[in-house]
Design goal:
The structure is a single chain. The chain is mostly helical. It has a domain of about 100 residues: Up-down Bundle (Receptor-associated Protein), CATH 1.20.81. It contains 15 helices and no strands.
Length: about 325
């Protein structure tokens, strides 16, 4: 009877993982179709939207700032807040309901707690309550980081190529198309440019099409690129020089990011090396002196201290990973 809750929790966890995987894989297969459908929806909304001239747009912005300045600041702060919906969007998981991830956190936490409650002491039981959020958030962060790296790999090259195209006399739209054609077909930058050009061909305004560039990639320099294009279309200016400075900034950030990762790589590697040594020592003791290991995990007093040491090791590994997680 005592094993029944664990069996039920395990079956529920496996079912949830299967459902979540099916939803994610299904969304991954139809992501391009969903993007194109969103383009069509944007086109329909654009046809019914009011087009503002630059003078009218500035007047409305001034009035909104005079009447509701505090409200505008609150809206901007709320837009910049990294919510679960935004994280799922950046991770290309927006096709999955946020409630699925919430339920996944609860189920994984309950399953981990039931397992630790049966075999471990109170310290590890309390630590198991954070397993669900950590696993789900780590999965979402991994997807976000993978898309960031995929976009960042070709982004500086694309900007430099665009600068060269503009200096040859091409307009920005032609330059974007020509610069994107030099990238690989599966390049994320090329895919985003092609989506932007398709929006333009479907009748979406330039501001909305350019503003939607890279909207599902969590990259800090995308907004600068978008604003440079929009300002050049509105007020003119030397776009090639602006993008050239932006390309140098992106390359500097890339170099600094790689240097930072290399600097903390030794600390991360040392942690795993120490864990490997501890595991090897436990294995050697079990072969040479089995009683020392068996008594540690069977005697109530020794097992309590051994689990406290295990909890300290887990907390140390988690703390080192959090400290060495650098964002540039």
């Amino acid at each position: 009877m005592t094993a029944l809750p664990i069996v039920i929790a395990t079956i529920a966890l496996l079912g949830l993982i299967g459902f979540l995987g099916r939803e994610i894989l299904g969304f991954g297969v139809s992501s391009q179709g969903a993007m194109r459908q969103s383009i069509r929806d944007m086109t329909a909304a654009q046809r019914g939207a009011r087009d503002y001239s630059p003078v009218e747009l500035n007047d409305e912005m001034e009035q909104s700032q005079e009447v509701g300045g505090t409200k505008e600041v609150a809206l901007k702060s709320s837009e910049n807040k990294m919510t679960l919906q935004k994280r799922l969007k950046f991770a290309q998981l927006s096709g999955v309901s946020p409630y699925v991830f919430t339920v996944a956190q609860v189920v994984i936490t309950v399953g981990a707690f039931l397992l630790t409650r049966r075999y471990f002491e109170v310290v590890l039981q309390l630590m198991s309550l954070s397993v669900g959020p950590l696993m789900v958030n780590s999965f979402i962060d991994y997807r976000m980081e993978a898309r960031f790296k995929k976009f960042d790999k070709d982004y500086p090259q694309f900007i430099l190529s665009l600068v060269g195209m503009l200096k040859t006399g091409l307009n920005p739209i032609q330059g974007l198309e020509a610069a994107a054609s030099n990238l690989e077909e599966r390049s994320l930058v090329r895919i985003e440019v092609e989506l932007m050009l398709e929006r333009l061909r479907l009748g979406v305004s330039e501001e909305r099409s350019i503003g939607s560039f890279g909207e599902d990639v969590n990259h800090p320099e995308i907004e600068l690129f978008v604003q440079a294009l929009l300002l050049s279309r509105r007020v003119g200016g030397n776009l090639s020089e602006t993008l050239d400075r932006l390309a140098r900034q992106v390359r500097k950030r890339q170099y600094f990011r790689q240097s930072a990762v290399g600097a903390v790589g030794l600390q991360r590697g040392s942690i795993w090396f120490i864990l490997a040594i501890l595991s090897a020592m436990q294995g050697y003791l079990y072969v040479a002196w089995p009683e020392s290991v068996i008594i540690t995990w069977t005697d109530p007093g020794a097992r309590r201290y051994a689990q406290m040491g295990l909890a300290a090791i887990i907390i140390g590994v988690f703390w080192v990973r959090r400290v060495t997680k650098i964002k540039v």
